[in-house]
Specification:
Blueprint: H1 6-21, E1 32-37, H2 41-50, E2 56-62, H3 66-73, E3 81-83, H4 86-90, E4 97-100, H5 104-116, E5 120-123
Parallel strand pairs: 1-2, 1-4, 2-3, 4-5
Helix pairs in contact: 1-2
Length: 126
C-alpha cells in the first residue's frame, strides 16, 4: 500500500472537498464557483491545488494587502473580481464555496460568516 503524504492529501482534498460539499452548486455548467480569502503564502498554494480541477472555477480573490492581491490576480488569464473586505465577497450569490487562507486569528470569524452566507467552506486549523 502506497503512503500518501499529508501535503498531497491536502492538495487534492482542498478542491475535492469543496466540490463534493457543494452538490447544489453543480448545475448547467457543472462547476463550483470559488472565492479565495487570503491569497499570499498558503492561499497561493490552495489556488495552485485548485486550478487543475475542471469542476472548480476561481472567480474572486480577497486580501487586505492590495499588493499581494494584485500580484496573485496577475497570474490568471481571466479577469477576477478583487476584494479587500471578505464580507463583500461573501455577499455575492454566485459564489458557491470559499477557500480561507488568512492568518489564524481570522479563520473562525470568516468561517462563521461564510457559513451564514450559505457558502461551502474549506479552512485549515493551525
Amino acid at each position: 500500500m502506497e503512503q500518501v503524504s499529508r501535503r498531497a492529501f491536502l492538495q487534492v482534498g482542498a478542491v475535492a472537498g469543496a466540490a463534493l460539499a457543494a452538490p447544489h452548486a453543480l448545475g448547467a455548467n457543472e462547476r463550483v464557483r470559488v472565492g479565495v480569502i487570503g491569497v499570499a503564502n498558503r492561499g497561493g498554494q490552495l489556488i495552485e491545488a485548485t486550478l487543475p480541477h475542471q469542476d472548480a472555477e476561481i472567480v474572486a480573490l480577497c486580501d487586505v494587502d492590495r499588493t499581494a492581491l494584485e500580484k496573485r490576480a496577475a497570474e490568471f488569464t481571466q479577469k477576477l473580481d478583487l476584494y479587500k473586505d471578505y464580507r463583500e465577497l461573501l455577499a455575492r450569490n454566485d459564489i458557491d464555496a470559499v477557500l480561507i487562507a488568512t492568518p489564524d486569528h481570522w479563520h473562525a470569524l470568516q468561517t462563521i460568516h461564510a457559513c451564514e452566507a450559505g457558502k461551502d467552506v474549506y479552512v485549515e486549523k493551525p
